[in-house]
Amino acid sequence: MRLLSAFDSDGPTVGVMTEQSPAVYPAHPPEAILRVVSPILGFLLRTPVTGSALKAFLVLRFKGRKTGRQFALTLSAHRLDNDLYVLSGTAWRLNFRGGAPAEVVHAGKTTAMRGELIEDTAVVADLTRRLAESYGVKGAQRVMGLKFRDPRIPTLEEFTEAVETNRLAAIRLTPTQ
């Protein structure tokens, strides 16, 4: 909780307003760490001997819709109801609006897939909540790039607020035939 006051922390508390932090908020590792770790993870994910910890990640390769630029992103992989998902609040996700081909390296295998952007707030909030429930409180915070204010799985309403505030979306990855 953040204290909003004209007084310092030792001063009077009369008239002090408090502002509660959001129940769910993004929490990603620092960019410098990601620049070092992502290539290493990308290499390890291409090897057939990946441990169970590495199955929590994938490499997503795709072309930019407008620029044609090649992307290769190391991301958290999420499985739910036999579908593979990635969650993102960043601009690259828009390349999957309306569906787009991708190559996915996951669990030591490379698979041609189609990515479909899911932007509907209610659907993304429900998906995110269900993923969090499947991981448990600590596991969800470790693998989803999200932190929870309280030591519990947030409610659907709290996830809905986080999806709206942070413009979170999901990409469903399905193998191409």
Q: What's the pLDDT, averaged over the residues?
A: 82
As residue ranges, the low-confidence spans are 1-18
How widely separated are the two ends?
Answer: 50 Å
Shape call: globular
Question: How many helical stretches?
Answer: 4
Radius of gyration: 19 Å
Write down the oligomeric state.
single chain
Helix/strand/pairing class, anyone? alpha+beta
Biggest sheet, spatial arrangement of strands:
5-4-8-9-11-7-6
Strand content: 25-35%
Task: Report a brief summary of the structure.
By secondary structure, this protein is an alpha+beta fold. The chain has 4 helices and 11 strands, in the order E-E-E-H-E-E-E-E-E-E-H-H-E-H-E.
Topology, please?
Layout: E1 2-4, E2 17-19, E3 24-26, H1 31-45, E4 57-63, E5 70-76, E6 78-80, E7 83-88, E8 100-106, E9 109-118, H2 121-135, H3 137-143, E10 146-148, H4 156-166, E11 169-175
Antiparallel strand pairs: 1-2, 3-10, 4-5, 4-8, 6-7, 7-11, 8-9, 9-11
Helix pairs in contact: 2-3, 2-4
Features:
177 residues; alpha+beta; Pnp Oxidase, Chain A; 4 helices; globular; disordered N terminus
Could you characterize the architecture of this molecule?
The chain is 27% helix and 33% strand. With 177 residues, the chain is of the alpha+beta class. The chain has one domain (20-175): Pnp Oxidase, Chain A, CATH 2.30.110.10. It has a seven-stranded antiparallel β-sheet with strand order 5-4-8-9-11-7-6. A two-stranded antiparallel sheet has the order 1-2. Strands 3-10 form a two-stranded antiparallel ribbon. Helix 2 (121-135) packs across helix 3. The protein starts with a strand and ends with a strand.
